[in-house]
Amino acid sequence: MGEGWAMRKMWVGAGVAVAGGLGFVMLLVVGVYLVAGDLAGGAGGGSKMLAKGSVPAAYQPLVQKWGNHCPAISPALLASQLYQESRFNPKAQSHAAAQGIAQFIPGTWATHGVDGDGDGDRDVWDPNDAIPSAASYDCSLASYVKDVPGDPTRNMLAAYNAGPYAVIKYQGVPPYEETQNYVKTITTLAKSFAAPTTRVDPSEQAAGAIAYAQEKLGTPYLWGGNGTADQGGRFDCSGLTKAAFESVGIELPRVANDQYNAGAHPSRDELLPGDLVFFSDDLANSRAIRHVGMYVGGGYMINAPRPGAVIRFDPIDTPDYFGATRVTEDGAKALPTTV
After folding, report:
1. pLDDT at position 175 over 60
2. What is the pLDDT of residue 201?
3. Lowest mean pLDDT among 123-127, 198-202, 241-245, 294-298
4. SS (HEC) of 107-154
């Protein structure tokens, strides 16, 4: 009780909240929706730069370079394909025999694999070959459908999924549900890898997610906890954020480093209540994220911190602060559920 009261006093001093749970939640509801109105239509646009740490540091220069291989792709788009295919795992192998970080099947690799690092071989398991090959393959597909009307990037992605002849036949993205979903997924997911060029629109579900998390204050932490009855209603860090957004109709993945890609990334000085905030021992790699909380304003978050602790308010400005995500429904739906 004493800690919670101290936190609320700090919020009042910062001008971001009022003492008392209901007043705090109502302020968030009004504040978030007002900002949403002020910023409507203000976000958007592409970026040639990757968001901080969104691609593991070992692959960031490759993705940045080869993501500009042709106008139909971008670093963020290439990153979203690699994440969707393998979550940047160079050892990934699917049941369909797709291999490596870019998940090439052997027949496609034989035709389109390139020696990206100039060492004399083409190794599907080596990201130095596989990432350039993925970009080169995208650009080859884009050239096949370059005379098709419409957006060249969408047409390229459709060709990747359904083949270039289907795109040519239908003079655009074919009317196949799988292909249309693939195009939407990759273009939506790409936004979470691009460095924002404008302010990021806030989520209208943010206040409801905070209200849910606030109701859990004081609940003991449980590793792997999802808040179910058999677990005594307890959570771990990502279990809490997942349940909070699920309460407002947004389905997040289970682990924190995947939740990072559920939307665009506001800077520290653009944080709004409801943004997810992330922490890592490796500030150059979102795949190393180990903790997540939900920002509430004034430099504080609600979080389930660790075994032996309870859900509580903690400051976010620590040396391991990685960054933030403004969750969107489309962004969450675009996240892969399998590798």
Report:
1. yes
2. 85
3. 198-202
4. HHHHHHCCCCCCCCCCCCCCHHHHHHHHHHHHHHHHHHCCCCCCCHHH
Confidence tier at 199 by pLDDT (50, 70, 90): confident
Q: What tokens appear for 146 in the block? A: 């370059």
Position 202 scores a pLDDT of 84
Q: Is 265 a catalytic residue?
A: no
The vertex-261 CA angle with 44 and 151, nearest 5°, equals 40
Residue 291 designated active-site: yes
- Provide the H-helix boundaries in the chain: 2-14, 21-39, 60-66, 75-86, 106-112, 127-144, 152-162, 164-170, 177-190, 206-215, 237-246, 256-259, 329-334
Residue of 69, 155, 226, 291 marked catalytic: 291
**pLDDT for the residue 165:** 97
Q: In 3-state terms, what secondary structure has residue 226?
A: strand
Confidence of residue 203 (pLDDT cuts 50, 70, 90): confident
Tell me the C-alpha distance between 135 and 313, whole Å. Answer: 44
Among 155, 261, 285, 303, which one carries the catalytic annotation? 303
pLDDT score for 204: 83
What is the spatial distance between Cα 49 and Cα 59, in angstroms, rounded to a whole number? Answer: 14
Q: In sequence order, which residues have a C-beta less than 8 Å from that of residue 87 and are 6 or more positions away?
A: 258, 287, 336, 339
- 266 contacts: CB under 8 Å, gap ≥ 6: 196, 199, 200, 272, 275, 324, 326
pLDDT class of 339 with cuts at 50, 70, 90: low
303 is catalytic: yes
Catalytic residue among 70, 237, 261, 265: 237
CA-based nearest residue to 339, from 253, 249, 226, 260: 253
